[in-house]
Amino acid sequence: MKTVTIYTDGACSGNPGPGGWGAILIYGAHKKELSGGEATTTNNRMELTAVIRALSLLKEPCTVDLWSDSRYVIDGLEKGWARGWQKRGWIKSDRKPALNPDLWEQLLALTEIHTLRYHWVKGHAENEFNNRCDELAVAESQKYK
Q1: ∠ CA 31-65-128 to the nearest 5 degrees?
Q2: I need a surface site. Which of 23, 39, 82, 94 has the fewest CB within 10 A?
Q3: How far apart are CA 136 and CA 145, in angstroms?
Q4: Is 124 a catalytic residue?
């Protein structure tokens, strides 16, 4: 199985507000950047969208090293929170509705195809790829101002 490294980030000006997402896929010497945005969204929706869009580009099952500064995404997957919400009909353990079930459904389906290894990275710090994803996401969000 091929191993791909993916970095992702989401940004939002206001929450909700105009938002953007950015992702970088790295496989060997190949690197691909992608980004997009929405006029009215939330930061968490953009974080999830970045991961979904990056994983959706993979043409075959891969081992994926996923790097994100979003605890919402990393913990939601790695700690099994999202699977629990799904099993309870998108209700959290505190009996409140889980947010973004539409995106979590898509992301969980993609985790069935690929083998993911999760890495949290501190945002706005020393990681060049995370910083580049942030630049892509912010640039996309500014298109909607």
Answers
A1: 55
A2: 94
A3: 15
A4: yes
> Does the active-site annotation cover 119?
no
* Axis crossing angle, helix 128-142 with helix 43-56, rounded to the nearest 10: 110
Structure confidence by residue, pLDDT tens digits, 48-69? 999 999 999 999 999 999 999 9
Q: Which of 9, 19, 20, 22 is catalytic?
A: 9
Q: Say if CB 129 and CB 67 are below 8 A apart.
A: yes
Record the pTM: 0.97
- The sheet with strand 3-12 has its strands ordered as 30-41, 17-27, 3-12, 63-68, 115-120
Q: Does domain 3-74+114-142 have CATH number 2.60.40.1120?
A: no
Q: Is 75 a catalytic residue?
A: no
Is position 28 annotated as part of the catalytic site? no
**Cα–Cα distance between 43 and 21 in angstroms, integer?**
9
Residue 23: its H or E element = strand 17-27
Active site residue 14: no
Annotated catalytic residue 10: yes
The residues spanned by each domain of the chain are 3-74+114-142
